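REQUEST ID: PR-0412
SUBMITTED BY: lab tech R.K.
PRIORITY: routine
TASK: structure prediction, single protein chain
INPUT:
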Amino acid sequence: MTTGALRPAADVRVMDGNKAAAWAVLLCRPDLLASYPISPQTPLLEQLYKFRAEGRLDAETVEVEGENSALSAAVGAVTAGGRAFTATSSMGLMFMYDAYLYASGQRVPVVMSVATREQCAPHTVSSGQQDIMMVKEGGWVQLVAESCQEILDSILVAYRLAEDPNVQLPVNVCYDGYYLSHLSEPVGVPTQEAVDRFLAAVGVGKRPVLSTEAPLSFGAFVLGELYAEYRYKHCQAMQRALDLAESLDGEFQAAFGRAWGGSIEAYRTEDAEVLLVGTGSACGTLKVAIDHLRQEGVRAGLARIRMFRPFPRRRLAELMRGRRAVGVLDRSVCFGWNSGHLYVDVRATAADLEARMPLVNFIGGLAGADIRREMLEDAVRTTVARGRGEPGPEVVWLGLE
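STATUS: complete
OUTPUT:
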C-alpha cells in the first residue's frame, strides 16, 4: 500500500481502481480525452464521460474507431501544447503499437493508463501483466501500482514526470486488471488546489509545439548519427525520469500529506536474510505471507518495483546486496528466457553485486489465477532453502509444480 497517513483534508471515498484513475485524471485538468473502450479499463472512460456530463471535466472528447486512433489523437493534442489522457488494455495496447513508438520517439509527454490483461492466444479476458511487458522497451516510463490509492497517486506523478522540461516523455500508469480495476478500497482524493500546486512546476514549462507562428517538423526522416543522437537523448531522459521519481517525495508529502515512495518500496528489508522481488497487486498478498512467516522466525523482505521502466537498477542492487538468496515473482512469461520478465531484469542487476547469490523465479497469476498466501509462503520457504544451498529448478510455476 502507499505509505503515509491520509491528510485530514483529503476526501476519503470507497472506489475501485478505474474510478480512482478517473478522479486523478479529472484533478489533472486534461485538455483532451481520447477514448476507445476495452475491458477491463472501460469503466474508467465511462466515469470520465460522467464527469464531463456533470460539468466537472472541461475537456474535449474524441470517440475514435480504435486504439491506434485514440493514442494518435492524444499525441496530436499534446504536440499542439495541450494535456491529454487515454487508456487501454491487452490487445488494444498491441493495436496502437506504432503510435506508441511514435509518442516516445518524438518525446510527446502524454499519459496513458493500462489496466493489465492477458493477451491471445489462447483467448482470455482475465488479469495478467503480459501486455505491459510486451511494450517494456517501447521507450515509455512505466509506473506499476499496488493499490487503488496508488493508482490515483501515480497518475498525478505521471503528469509531473512526463511534462518536466528535463524529461518530456510519455508515461504509462499500469495496474492489474480486475484485481485492482474492479477492486473497491478507501481512496483519499486530494483537493483540486493541492493538485494544482503539485503540477504547477510543469504547468509553466515550455516545450516544442505545433504552431503556425513558429512552424516545426514532427516525425522527421533521419539517418545515421542524427538517429543515434535521438536515441542517446531519449535514454538520458529516461534516466532523468528515474532521478526525478526518486526525488519527488518531499513535494508529494507537502502537497498531499503522504509519501510517494520512489521507484521501489522496501518492506521489512532491514534485517532480511532473503529478499523477494515483485510488482503489482500480488505484492499485497506477499507482504501478508512475509508477516506470517516472520512470526515463525523467517527473516524475509520485499522489494516492490513501482517504476519498471526505466528500471531502478542501482537501488535494487543496494537492496539485494548481502542477502542469502533472492526470489522473484512474475505474472508474465518471457519466452526467450524461459522465465518471467522481471526475473530477467533482476538477474541482470545481480551482475552488479560483488558476490553471487541463488536466484529463483516464481511464475503465477496468469489468466486471472489467484496467487494465494499459501503459495507465496511456499515461495519464500523455497527461496530460504536455496539460500541454504538446497538444489532446485531455476523457475517454479506456482500452481503447476
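NOTES: Residues 355 and 362 are 22 Å apart (CA to CA).
REVIEWED BY: pending
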